[in-house]
Design a protein that fits this description.
Layout (H helix, E strand, L loop, with lengths): L2 H14 L6 E2 H7 L6 H11 L11 E2 L10 H10 L4 E3 L5 E3 L1 H4 L5 H8 L1 H10 L1
Parallel strand pairs: 1-2
Antiparallel strand pairs: 3-4
Helix pairs in contact: 1-3, 1-6, 2-3
Length: about 130
C-alpha cells in the first residue's frame, strides 16, 4: 500500500464512523489491513483533519482514550459538539469513555461501505 492509498483508506474509515461514536487509531489500522500501523494512522488523521470537505477526524482517538492531538482543546471541543462525553483525567489530560461512545464496526460491512473492498481486491490481484 502506498502512502497515498494508506491516507485514503484512513480517510474512508474515518468518514464511516457514526455520529457520537469514537474509534481508536489501532482499530482503524486493523480495518485497513495494516494492524501494526496505529502510529501512522494517527499521523494520517492529523493530516486529514485539515481536508475539505471536512471529515469527522476528531472521532479517531488513542487506544488509551487520551485526546492526544497537538491541539487538545480543538479536539475536545469537536468531540463535545458531536455529543461525545469528554472528561478530565487524573493528571489533567482530556479523555473519552469507550464504554459510552466506542464504535466496534463490523469489518466486512465497513470495508464494503467505504469502498476499501475494491482497493483490497486490486491489491490482491497485483
Amino acid at each position: 500500500m502506498t502512502d497515498e492509498q494508506f491516507i485514503l483508506a484512513v480517510y474512508d474509515v474515518v468518514r464511516a464512523i457514526p455520529g457520537q461514536k469514537i474509534i481508536t487509531h489501532g482499530q482503524i489500522a486493523v480495518l485497513i489491513g495494516m494492524p501494526n500501523s496505529s502510529r501512522q494512522v494517527k499521523n494520517a488523521v492529523r493530516f486529514i483533519s485539515h481536508t475539505t470537505p471536512p471529515v469527522p477526524w476528531y472521532r479517531a482517538v488513542s487506544t488509551s482514550g487520551v485526546i492526544s492531538m497537538d491541539d487538545a482543546g480543538r479536539h475536545r471541543k469537536a468531540l463535545e459538539e458531536d455529543g461525545i462525553f469528554v472528561y478530565e483525567g487524573t493528571f489533567g489530560e482530556w479523555r473519552v469513555d469507550f464504554e459510552r461512545s466506542g464504535w466496534v464496526p463490523d469489518i466486512e460491512t465497513t470495508i464494503r461501505s467505504t469502498g476499501l473492498i475494491s482497493e483490497l481486491i486490486s491489491d490482491f490481484g497485483s
